[in-house]
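ok so for the tutorial part 2 we go from a plain amino acid sequence to predicted structure tokens. step 1 is just haveing the sequence, like this:
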Amino acid sequence: MLTVSDTAWSIAQIRADEALLPAGERLFDDPYAGIFAAAGAHAAEGTARFLSLPFFRDGIRLRTRAIDDVTRDALAAGITQVVLLGAGFDARGMRLPEIAAHGATVFEVDFAELLDTKRALLTTAGVSLPSHVSYVACDLSAPDLDTALLAPLVARGFRAGSGCLFVWEGVVTYLDRASIDRSLAFMARWGGVGARVV
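step 2 — the prediction. this is what the tokens look like for a chain of 198 residues:
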């Protein structure tokens, strides 16, 4: 049976397939997606089901590019903290050169098991996590989200109230209404002046 985290393999496959297009037709470059997609054989049935949905692939491609553009705009506006809520196999912290160029920090939030898998796959492929990217284990459906998420973020250098871009990509459909409300409240409370969410 597939878990919520297994959908991350489907997204990785779409991002990996982008590299098969001619350079002029690509909406983004993700040199790390192939690492994750290659390890997703256990989720092949679910991945095939997602990829067979009308417009699913194009929706993910467009969503990825749109969020990349919002991230670049936020960095250009002076945001130096990016929090990926439900990061999955997102590799923006490594693949967008603008993040390092602006001296920004990326905090990738997801289930501990998924983050451990992500770290292990990158390590096996010889990829080191850059110092500006931190993993933060948290269940976004935790009833005490403020406590469960804020302390580990701060421990890794998050500056609460100092401005932030929250990337909330493909997560809402997996959360109940109370968890969505808690997540939005968290962003509003701790993002600070100029905080954004995409």
